Amino acid sequence: MSLSLKQMRYAIAVAEAGHFGRAARLCNVSQPALSQQIQLIEEFCGTPLFDRLKTGVRPTPFGAEFVLRARQVLDSADALTALARSRASRPDRPIRFGLIPTVAPYLLPEIFPALTRGLPELEFTVSENRTEALVGGLVDGSLDLALIGTEPPDAGPRLTCEPLFKDAFVLATSQHEPSEGPISLAAVAPERILLLDEGHCFRDQTIAACRLDNDPGSRTFAATSLSTIVEFVANGQGVTLLPQIALRKEATDPRIAIHPLASPGAGRMLSLVWREATPFRATFSQIAQVIREARQPENAR
């Protein structure tokens, strides 16, 4: 006997679902059929993959290692299948495209019409998540592309990072706060700066730019979105940094004032990231170029 790709997919589904019944539904097979395949794997390996609990299952230490390696095998198999089916380096399925929350609502309305016009043969499925989750999706093969605002960490498989454009930061305050000319971040009271909650890369960038204490316990406020922060700023309850791409949506409130930052300022480089081993690198480079061109009129203003 040898292990099949189908059996590996079943094992991964059980690990992710934590339950044989839910995994069977995800795999569109009966629970007895799935359970039988897992049992065959365990007999082949000579040890259980999962601890059977009253409320479900969880991987044994061996099972966790098995699932990790199975994902790597399936990722390679999927890449080989995609290469065999591709024509002119074009995927034959929708491209799974992830964006960080401080980019997605502001950039998608611009870049998707441009992608539809420039690359009409491509289809996309779009998701929004934090950088760590997006990079994890690239690593485990559940994502093809990610648009992020930081350098991707060393996550195992080699990643290609294609810079798109720089996104400068500005300071948002209540309109009642007097100011003249660009504002130095050193002159802003640290306790007045409002932040996103932990896990957002934009939070980390704001902390670095403003040289703030990164102790979560030292702050009583953390928002899940820039829109929430802007509402607090409009009511005079603090100030915040905003990325330039967010201004058309987040700076329309007449109670908000936007101020440029004094030199050296602050900002981030937005980049498109994908696995280096993908057979679709030429297509992904084209997508990056379409995004850059879609932003050129904005960058010129």
Task: Describe what you observe in this structure.
The strands form 2 sheets. Strands 3, 4, 5, 6, 7, 8 and 9 form a 7-stranded mixed beta sheet that branches. Strands 1-2 form a two-stranded antiparallel ribbon. 43% of the residues lie in helices and 18% in strands. Helix 1 packs across helix 4 and helix 5 crosses helix 10. It is α+β, with helices and mostly antiparallel strands. It is elongated, with a radius of gyration of 23 Å. The chain has 3 domains: 81 residues, Arc Repressor Mutant, subunit A, CATH 1.10.10; 96 residues, Periplasmic binding protein-like II (D-Maltodextrin-Binding Protein, domain 2, 3-Layer(aba) Sandwich), CATH 3.40.190; 98 residues, D-Maltodextrin-Binding Protein, domain 2. It has 10 helices and 9 strands.
Quick take:
The protein is of the alpha+beta class.
CATH class of the largest domain: Alpha Beta
Counting helices, strands and paired strands, the structural category is alpha+beta
Alpha-carbon Rg, integer? 23 Å
Beta-strand portion reads 15-25%
For this entry, what is the oligomeric state of its chains? Answer: single chain
Uncertain segments are none
CATH level 4 superfamily of the largest domain: Periplasmic binding protein-like II
Average pLDDT confidence is: 87
Counted up, domains total: 3
CATH fold group of the largest domain? D-Maltodextrin-Binding Protein, domain 2
List keywords for this structure.
alpha+beta, 301 residues, D-Maltodextrin-Binding Protein, domain 2, 7-stranded mixed beta sheet, Arc Repressor Mutant, subunit A, 43% helix, elongated, 18% strand, 3 domains, two-stranded antiparallel sheet
